[in-house]
Design a protein that fits this description.
This protein is of the alpha+beta class and 307 residues long. It is 45% helix and 14% strand. The strands form 2 sheets. Strands 2-4-5-7-6 form a 5-stranded mixed beta sheet. A two-stranded antiparallel sheet has the order 1-3.
């Protein structure tokens, strides 16, 4: 498409008098994707990477803004559905009530999509605000479990919370940890069949920051002599179908979902990725222990600063 002309006609400059550019203009993003990297210098490759990163950031911000705009009409819809469900606008028959309940369920899924994507975009654009305050991890977890209890009862799945009363208070971002635990509980609720069980527990844990999961004998001896824990460990386990070992790392990637019909309607594959990133912001870690047919156990660690 031809570029728009200026309202004022510029004085024509003779061809020989026009300045000749001494350097080439930087390639556009489509040109970047078609470049032969073998012919580019290290500085040129670095420049292309920076521009692609900035373009990705701008697109993420633009998409997040569009997603954020969905919150207002969604809140209006939620208000009207609550009004209809209360029957203040008229009595509902059984068929209308079932339709309205289905609408409310899908409205909750959409709210979860929006919350997850806005959190993801905040992390991607480095605009995530962390608020560390000294708090009780047991209270934090208990509150999340209480919020989920009605949905578990409706599905016929048991939910148990086992607190660690000897766990000391320590600084952490309560809302971010609740987001992590809520994502894990949501997955457990989604994959656990009726009459199944989900357990949530917290405990003191000696965290030797190495790649292995279990301490050596000498470390265990040091643990016995050391009275103060250095981490809090939270476990969310279920009696669902389990996860194949080859997916134990992959499920924490962005937009990654396991191939299953049960998680298709209400998941965009960001829950575990967000959990991993929020725990990384705490200096913690998360992993899964699972085998097909034996359920899944998600564990994460939050370091406790020394007093």
């Amino acid at each position: 498409m031809a570029e728009p002309t200026s309202a004022k006609t510029a004085r024509k400059v003779p061809q020989e008098a026009r300045p000749v550019p001494t350097t080439e203009a930087p390639p556009s993003q489509p040109d970047d994707l078609e470049c032969d990297l073998d012919e580019l210098s290290a500085d040129e490759i670095k420049d292309i990477c920076e521009r692609l990163r900035e373009e990705s950031r701008r697109r993420t911000v633009a998409l997040a803004s569009a997603v954020h705009e969905l919150k207002t009409p969604l809140a209006v819809m939620e208000g009207y559905m609550e009004l209809l469900y209360s029957e203040k606008a008229g009595v509902l028959n059984d068929k209308q009530r079932r339709i309205l309940e289905d609408m409310q369920a899908n409205e909750k899924r959409l709210k979860r999509f929006i919350a997850d994507f806005l959190t993801f975009s905040a992390i991607e654009t480095k605009n995530l605000n962390m608020s560390f305050e000294v708090g009780d991890l047991n209270d934090c977890l208990s509150e999340v479990c209480a919020l989920w209890m009605p949905r578990f009862e409706q599905k016929g799945v048991a939910l148990y919370f086992s607190p660690e009363h000897a766990l000391p208070k320590f600084p952490f971002d309560s809302l971010k940890i609740q987001h992590v635990v809520s994502n894990l509980i949501h997955n457990a609720w989604k994959f656990t069949p009726p009459r199944g069980t989900v357990w949530v527990s917290a405990e003191r844990y000696f965290w030797e920051r190495r790649l292995r999961e279990e301490p050596t004998k000498n470390e265990k001896r040091r643990i016995d002599n050391r009275k103060l824990p250095i981490a809090a460990r939270v476990i969310v386990s279920d009696t669902g179908p389990g996860i194949e070992p080859e997916f134990h790392q992959e499920i924490f990637n962005d937009f990654r979902r396991l191939t299953s019909t049960s998680n298709a309607p209400d998941s965009i594959g960001l829950g575990l990725s967000i959990a991993r990133r929020l725990l990384n912001a705490h200096g913690g870690k998360i992993w899964v222990e699972s085998k097909p047919g034996t359920g899944s156990k998600f564990l994460f660690l939050i370091p406790i600063p020394k007093a």
